[in-house]
Amino acid sequence: MHGVGEPEPRPTATPSGCAKPALETGNLLTEPIGYLESCFSAKNGTPRQPSICSHSRACLRIRKSIFNNPEHSLMGLEQFSHIWILFVFHKNGHLSYKAKVKPPRLNGAKTGVFSTRSPHRPNAIGLTLATLEKVEGGAVYLTGIDMIHGTPVLDIKPYIADYDSPQNLMNFNLQNNQHKPRTASQSDSGTDTCDQRQSSVCEKAQPCHGAEEKLKHLEDRASEENSPKPSNSTETPCSSPGHRDRAADLELDSRISENVGVTELQHGPQELKNFPEPRSLEGTMVLQGSSVETQGAASCPTRIADRAPGSVVPTWVREAPAAPLQVRFTPHAEMDLEQLGSDAGQVSFKYFQSTEEAKCAIKAVLAADPRSVYRRKLCQDRLFYFTVDVAHVTCWFGDGFAEVLRVKLASDTVQVTDPEQSLVPLGS
Ligand SMILES: C[S@@+](CC[C@H](N)C(=O)[O-])C[C@H]1O[C@@H](n2cnc3c(N)ncnc32)[C@H](O)[C@@H]1O
Fold first, then answer.
1. DSSP H helices in 267-382
2. Distance CA 229, CA 252 (A)
3. pLDDT at position 306, please?
4. Which residues of 129-147 are buried (b: 16+ CB within 10 A; e: fewer)?
5. I need a surface site. Which of 4, 134, 297, 341 has the fewest CB within 10 A?
6. Is the ipTM of this complex over 0.90?
7. Do 74 and 62 touch, CB atoms closer than 8 A?
8. Distance between Cα 140 and ligand 1 center (Å)
9. What global pTM score does this model have?
């Protein structure tokens, strides 16, 4: 990997008053991973959001100055249908920004800049969810973009509906908690109240004829080649509101995902004009039992800017490395937590609003097994510590469970200090 300069350990002001780059203080020195080749040459006429024009096209070539072998950095990305693009609004002209702006949709009225997608913001960073058409060598081909030619791109990340869409978050938690049959202790655990909420929405999605050809192709192949369709093949696999049949999902996920890889690799020419038909954001798809998200479109609107599009992820994303752990507290730890939570009748947490909430959070953290793979494999019998809010938690892990042993007041709570207001630099 190519270095981008030695980071300064401390924030120091330059003569111009700017802070020198220092990761710890957030003064990041960025180096674009590439410059976008876009069908839009100027701001004027460029869509305000990617969902507006699914046929807009762009190509991003990862620079060799970032990775000697750019194609290595894109390995596996072809298995995703959508990616986030983080970029710099390099044509803002000037670096001024205001606390309140007038977004076009507010017709002249003002609102706080952070409640908008305005390009004029303190760090001039844009975020676009683009459709990934194909990966070829060290380049990605995109459709559904709202960035102009020459836009410096800082990063790309896969779109994972399970993490990135609130609706899916609920299902994801549900799925994780369904890994194992729930035991009485789990039911009693209190985790239910915070982590096993079911989405109240499980709309019945309708097949969308205008939806994108490629995903349809994947659907066809998945159903033809691999599996019998679910018996109720005209319905989304919801056995109860908000509850999808994750087992069926997982089974078909792998097939769909493999197909995605294959399909992507089959695309040939590099020129933008030879792009495949764009994966449309227009409308949603019903892929029975597949990883393509169904987002409950009863009809097929020409634009669904307010709904998440169907998306594809590789199987490994959906398959948790291990089943969620059962979490329990020793009576001592329960007592510790009660004491910590009530300071002469007052809740003494800074972030949690109740002891129960703190307990939920601790359980959620531990159920997902926060240990590194190294620790999990090689230091199984070591105590594990972490701090959340004012609670310093000590626990140990056994086969399929984590047990909280002690909960004490954290002596050194993490301070978030603005370096400008402190003579003591962060990290000292
Ligand atoms: C409203 S912003 C939204 C961008 C992104 N989706 C976001 O939410 O951060 C989109 C507009 O930014 C402008 N734009 C696109 N690329 C730009 C660039 N590199 N520099 C400055 N403005 C840009 C275009 O006028 C486009 O219509």
1. 315-318, 331-341, 355-367, 373-378
2. 10
3. 35
4. bbbbbbbbebbbbbbbbbb
5. 4
6. yes
7. yes
8. 19
9. 0.65
Hey, what's the torsion of the CAs at 207, 199, 366, 162, to 10 degrees? 30
Determine how many CB atoms are found less than 10 A away from the CB of residue 361.
19
CA 43–ligand 1 middle distance (angstroms): 7
Q: Which of 140, 14, 154, 1 is nearest to 81 (CA)?
A: 140
Q: Give dist(CA 127, CA 85) in Å, integer.
A: 6
Of the candidates 393, 397, 390, the residue with the CA atom closest to the CA atom of residue 413 = 390
What's the rounded Cα separation, in Å, for the pair 77 and 60?
Answer: 13
Tell me what pLDDT residue 64 has. 98
Query: Alpha-carbon distance 206 to 56, whole Å?
Result: 26
CA distance 210 to 253: 23
107: left (phi over 0), alpha (psi -120 to 50) or beta: left
Q: Is 116 a pocket residue for ligand 1 (Cβ < 6 Å)?
A: no
Residues of the chain with pLDDT under 50: 1-9, 11, 179-211, 214, 217-271, 280-308, 413-414, 422-428
Distance (Å, rounded) from C-alpha 284 to C-alpha 212? 9
Residue 364's contacts (CB-CB under 8 Å, 6 or more residues apart) are 191, 194, 195
Q: Is 117 in the pocket of ligand 1 (CB under 6 A)?
A: yes
Q: Are 284 and 301 in contact (CB under 8 A)?
A: no
Residue 151 Cβ contacting ligand 1 at under 6 Å: yes
CB of 49 shorter than 6 A to ligand 1: yes
Tokens of 318: 């959906």
CA distances (Å), 148 to each of 38, 59, 96, 119, in order? 6, 11, 20, 12
Please state, as a whole number, how many other Cβ atoms lie within 10 Å of the Cβ of residue 12: 15
Q: Is 282 helix (H, G, I), strand (E, B) or coil?
A: coil
Q: Which atom of ligand 1 is nearest to the CA of 148?
A: 16
Amino acid at 340: L
Taking alpha carbons only, the member of 140, 165, 143 closest to residue 155 is 140
What distance in Å separates the CA atoms of residue 307 and residue 295, rounded to the nearest whole number?
A: 7
- Counting atoms of ligand 1 from 1, which one is nearest the CA of 92? 21
Asked if 285 and 301 count as a contact pair (C-beta separation under 8 A), the reply is: no
Find how far residue 344's CA is from the centre of its chain.
40
**Residue 126 near ligand 1, beta carbon < 6 Å:** yes
* Ligand 1 atom nearest to 90, measured from its CA: 20
